[in-house]
Amino acid sequence: MKCAHAFALVACLTIDTAVAARAQQPEAAPDHQQHQHPAPPSPTKPAPSTDAPRPSGEQPARLPSFIPPVTDAVRAAAFPDVDGHAVHDRAINSLVQFDQLEWQSGNGLDGVSWDTKGWVGRDRDRFWFRSEGDRVGGQLEQAQHHLLFGRAVARWWDVTAGVRLDTVPGQSRSALAFGVQGLAPYWFDVEASAYVEPSGRTHLRVETEYDLLITNRLVLQPLVEFEIYGLSDRERLIAPGLSSGELGVRLRYEIRRELAPYVGVVWTRRFFGSADLARDAGADVSTTRLAVGLRAWF
User: What domains can be seen in the chain, in order of their start residue?
Assistant: First the structure.
């Protein structure tokens, strides 16, 4: 009996040891032949096109019967021939602008200066007028008046032709005027005019100005002007060549676009032979003046 109990005890220990060893062993790797990775999916095939060719006997879709067919008359009405400048407005318009209407003070003298221009007409053909001058010390120093016909020859340019009348005490003159005016690249406003007097004297004048926007309402406007003469005119202290020039800087505040007060400085000078004639006559060769004025248009 003791031998039988001992044998049973040994058998139980052996079974417990085998079970514990079985539990500690890792699971066997799956059989690759029985558990293979699935193959990557094949790219999706595009859906078959629905625009299959029509059978040879099938007709294209027709418009509803209530829509009339497109005829040559309909095409001609939709796309008429544009002859010349038919797009331009035929209405008559006008503009008057006081570019400079100012009081000036300097060199011991006060005065009033003006520079006015305007036009009336259509988009391409207009009649222009200009007037500018200076009244210093209660007396008219000089004034020029133009009456011109202008025609637009390019998008931003006009050519002008007409007459000019100089109003100077005791020295009134007249001349034929030819010129060009417009907006140069980079927004420079240019005005160039050539004059021929009945006596044969010639005169070239070039003026350019630029509006520099500091803010939407505060504008700085520099201006440069030169005058060149072909013959001398001692009564007016003018010698041939570059006679005089003007440089002005004006700062304006646009209360409205058509109404703007301003302040500025204007410097004028005579050059070369004209300066010599001014010195001989005891006149000023150069002047610097403070300007306060109003710019307006309507």
Answer: 93-297 (2.40.160.40)
